[in-house]
Design brief:
There is one protein chain. By secondary structure, this protein is an alpha/beta fold. The chain has one domain: NAD(P)-binding Rossmann-like Domain (Rossmann fold, 3-Layer(aba) Sandwich). It is about 35% helix and about 15% strand. The chain contains ten helices and eight strands. Helix 7 links the parallel strand 4 and strand 5.
Length: about 260
């Protein structure tokens, strides 16, 4: 059954039998099981990744269902990690799922990175994104960043030694100066596009295949029907990943991820 399940994937030159075994031994943490985390979780489970960590402290609401495709109407009121875990195990009963109903905190994020091979960012709280970025740099583990709003979004992959999120934006914006998805709106299909690219990036990291979006940012504009990939250099003065880095620990976060909390798309 397992061989037949992944047959069309295993015949890819970049996967093969050894690659499929590598995926079965691999682990990925998904921080935020919302609009982005839903397709990421579904595609990684379907691909045969052996262990998924789901980190989210929210419950399913009716307003989630238009874009958070891992949930159904019967899940309303349940914790997201419990509902998502149940859906993923229906997809692949052999999957190991760590359902962690919690928020990401400065005191625990380094341990989270140490437990998994790759971490995928499914949040839209800027402080959370920068906390994940800084932890990835300090711990030396890959992070697949993603963001989405209205009809579009973006993805980049942070790997040890490569440019990080702070090479693009040295500091997170003031939360009061940017619109949230709740305020600006979002089309569900955009989260599917961006989340699928994040899942591809995570699989490439695990397989050691292809060219990662390291030092490049994938940008999708669904309304205009445009997609582009823009390179960006490593900032020699980056506060997180340069030789002059001033972020050498995570105490600057003082346990408060964001005034808005871990807001998920």
């Amino acid at each position: 059954m397992t061989a037949e399940r992944h047959h069309r994937q295993r015949i890819l030159a970049e996967v093969g039998e050894e690659g499929q075994r590598r995926l079965a031994r691999a682990s990925v943490a998904i921080v935020g099981v919302g609009g982005l985390g839903s397709p990421v979780a579904l595609y990684l489970a379907a691909a045969g990744v052996g262990r998924l960590g789901l980190i989210d402290d929210q419950r399913v609401e009716v307003s989630n269902l238009s874009r958070q495709v891992v949930y159904e109407e019967c899940d309303i009121g349940r914790t997201k990690v419990e509902a998502a875990a149940g859906r993923l195990l229906l997809l692949d009963p052999a999957l190991r799922v760590d359902a962690r109903q919690e928020n990401v905190r400065a005191s625990t994020v380094a341990e989270l990175f140490s437990e998994y091979d790759v971490v995928v960012d499914g949040t839209d709280a800027f402080e959370t994104k920068f906390l994940l970025n800084d932890a990835a740099v300090l711990v030396g583990k890959p992070l697949v960043y993603g963001a989405v709003l209205q009809w579009g979004g973006q993805v980049t992959t942070i790997v040890p030694g490569g440019p990080c999120l702070r090479c693009l934006f040295s500091e997170p914006p003031d939360p009061d100066s940017v619109l949230t998805c709740e305020q600006a709106g979002i089309i569900g299909a955009a989260t599917g596009v961006v989340g699928s690219v994040q899942a591809e990036e995570a699989l490439k990291v695990l397989l050691g295949a292809g060219t990662l979006l390291s030092g490049r940012i994938f940008q999708h504009d669904g309304l205009q029907g445009e997609t582009r990939i823009t390179p960006f250099p490593k900032d020699p003065n980056c506060p997180a990943c340069s030789p002059r880095a001033r972020i050498t620990d995570l105490t600057r976060y003082a346990e408060q991820v964001s005034p808005r909390g871990n807001v998920l798309v």
